[in-house]
Input
Amino acid sequence: MSYKQVIITQFGEPDVMKIVEKAVVPEPAANEVRIKVQATSACFTDTMVRKGIYFDLKKKPPFPPGYDVVGVVDKLGTAVTQLKVGQAVADLTVSDAYTEYICRAESSLVPVPEGLDPAEATSLVLSYVTAYQMLHRAAKVQRGQTVLIHGAGGAVGTALLELGKLLDLKMFGTASKSKHDLVASLGGIPIDYRSEDFVERVGVGGVDVAFDAIGGDNFKRSFKTLKKGGMLVAYGFYDNAMGKGGSVPIEFMKVALWNLLPNGRSSKFYSIGGLRKKQPDWFREDLAALFDLLAQRKIKPSIERRMKLDEAVEAHKLIEQAAVKGRIVLMVNEA
Output
């Protein structure tokens, strides 16, 4: 049986992605299961992978992008003991999820509770686990604290807002004007990053935690907003990825060195992949906790568009134009 996947033919702009048909579906190794994919996010990290500038992945084309996946177990490897055919599962794949079928190790999979929407479930795997771990594992936020969220109208930003609201946080969120209604609806105080100075709006020493994926000078300015005892959580380099300058290694070192300054503030860099390698059980625990919140309808991922797998090029163009409120999900093998 043949199947389709979207591959990156070479590093570059969205048009380097092509849909191809593979002659035979993959066979799982002994410790793997084959998954019939239902949904995978199209996210900003995928665009970095497509450009060849994502520091946590060293693969060379051709290969499919796709950082997360939700699907149904289609076939078991001979050594698989904990999963069954027909069971819904999720994984953080980093790449390879823009496909109709994928094989993954049983040990890496997290069961998805029955009845959850695959698009909402896959939205939790990267964006919400990132937000949850930055709040609880990295910053260890306390109820009622004040935080600054950059890119508050994006996939991780909206997740931070939703989860922060559950903690009664006071949340400032930078976003373009078109996304201010969304930010406000999720409990944030919108700041227009194009026309307002967020340092002035928030105030020097005004927040307990700043979450910043912009990079460059933004890291330094976010650090200024911290109270004594506050923390900058840096988790990306948007400006560098969009060709706006900056050096990832230098910026990474700056964030680390700020911890040596005698000013009572701290900084750290968060990577979901890096933390999963160090603490694999945390990923499973945190994703399971988020699935529980979703089942209880305490969170509802903001999904602007559900697109087909063969619309991946258009999805990446929308992401890079910052035209998406929340997230895009690619729907695959829909019933």
